[in-house]
Amino acid sequence: MRKPEWIAIIACIVLSLTVFVGSTGLGYAVYRPLRYYDIFSLVIAWTGLAYHLWRGHRAG
After folding, report:
1. Sign of torsion, CA 50 7 17 44?
2. What is the number of domains present in the chain?
3. What one-character DSSP code corresponds to residue 60?
4. Could you list the residue range(s) of the whole structural domain that residue 19 is in?
5. Could you give the CA distance from residue 12 to residue 28 in angstroms, rounded to a whole number?
6. Sign of the C-alpha dihedral, residues 32, 37, 40, 46?
7. DSSP state letter for 32
8. Entry pTM
């Protein structure tokens, strides 16, 4: 994989952790489950990453 793919993967992981901790309050507030729009945003981000990697794999 090239550098842009690694940057995209790291960005998705960091954003996923940020959404999880920010949404659930894990570690600094009362725990609450993930909300549907949080899950939706994570699915969109990871689906976009998978599409990008799949398209790059087919192209080269």
Report:
1. negative
2. 1
3. -
4. 3-59
5. 23
6. negative
7. -
8. 0.72
